[in-house]
Design brief:
It is a single chain. With about 300 residues, the protein is α/β, with parallel strands linked by helices. It is globular, with a radius of gyration of 18 Å. The chain contains twelve helices and eight strands. Helix 2 (about 55-70) runs parallel beside helix 3, helix 6 (about 150-160) runs parallel beside helix 7 (about 170-180) and helix 11 crosses helix 12 (about 280-290).
């Protein structure tokens, strides 16, 4: 990783379940070994891609403990620990830190649409409750409220352990403002696989990726190529992966990526309600692309 601790290729890890929807501990350990082999820099369990709205607090603790045990000192573990109640988000953050998380990813409050001052206060309470780095997660498409660059930068300047933002939007002016006005040790990562190349070419620090669940080595390579300025090679690789990037969102995340991982023999195709399997015509598209990429026979 670069001098910024929160940087590189981070995977928004799925949560594998058994047929009875209980945690599949063996599959979770195997996923971690897959990422160790693939060169992933950061693993983020219990986020949106990990179906966090359906996880209990004890499940969060156990998942983080298993991931941390498998990661050792080789991969940074930054656990998802967010909700739209500030008190609940603080509890989740403290729980994840106690379980061994080395950083916290906390989503901006959703549905209740707080003001920018409310968003500031939300993250202030989280930052003051834990000692590990906090990653702000701005995803207006899911939360219904954009967290402004001004608010993000205010937090970054005032709290040393607010260390990064996952900017999961296509708001390029906001991204450029964050990159141009951030403190020295504050990382800016994209949450959009389709934007890895242009985002990092502007000076971004990496990606929190869904596709890294399927192709960790390739996502890591794409990040590395752009970081090293090898843009011609990066464009070739980006073009190869671009269809997969898009297909992962033909249905609500993480339904497509979990179906793909089931075809790859990594997990069972099990979701917790209200998520349900994709219709057959969408499954065919995923299967075709996995074959094109050589991920299944």
């Amino acid at each position: 990783m670069s001098k910024r601790v929160i940087s590189g290729s981070a995977v928004a890890l799925v949560t594998p379940f058994r047929e009875d929807t209980t945690l599949d501990r063996e599959a979770l350990r195997n996923l971690m070994r897959f990422h160790l082999a693939g060169g992933t820099d950061i693993v983020i369990p219990c986020g949106t891609t990990g179906e966090s709205p359906t996880l209990g607090i004890e499940e969060q603790r156990e998942i983080v403990e298993i991931v941390r045990e498998e990661a050792g000192n080789r991969i940074l573990v930054a656990a998802g620990a967010g909700t739209n109640s500030t008190a609940g988000a603080v509890e989740l953050a403290r729980n994840a830190e106690k379980a061994g998380a080395e950083a916290i990813l906390s989503v901006s409050p959703y549905y209740n649409k707080p003001s920018q001052e409310g968003l500031y206060e939300h993250y202030r309470h989280i930052a003051e409750a834990v000692s590990v780095p906090v990653i702000i997660y701005n995803v207006p498409g899911r939360t219904g409220r954009n967290m402004s660059a001004e608010t993000i930068l205010r937090l970054a300047h005032e709290f040393e352990n607010i260390a990064a933002v996952k900017e999961a939007s296509e708001n390029m002016p906001q991204i450029m403002e964050l990159l141009g006005s951030r403190p020295e040790n504050f990382s800016v990562l994209t949450g959009e696989d389709t934007l890895i190349l242009p985002f990092m070419a502007l000076g971004g620090d990496g990606v929190i990726s869904v596709a890294a669940n399927q192709v960790p080595g390739e996502v890591k390579k794409l990040v590395t190529l752009v970081r090293e300025g090898q843009l011609d090679q990066a464009r070739v690789l980006n073009n190869r992966l671009s269809h997969l990037f898009r297909l992962n969102f033909i249905e609500s995340n993480p339904v497509p990526v979990k179906y793909a991982l089931s075809l790859m023999g990594m997990i069972e195709e099990v979701y917790r309600l209200p998520l349900v399997p994709m219709p057959p015509e969408q499954k065919v598209l995923i299967e075709e692309e996995l074959r094109n990429l050589g991920l299944i026979d």
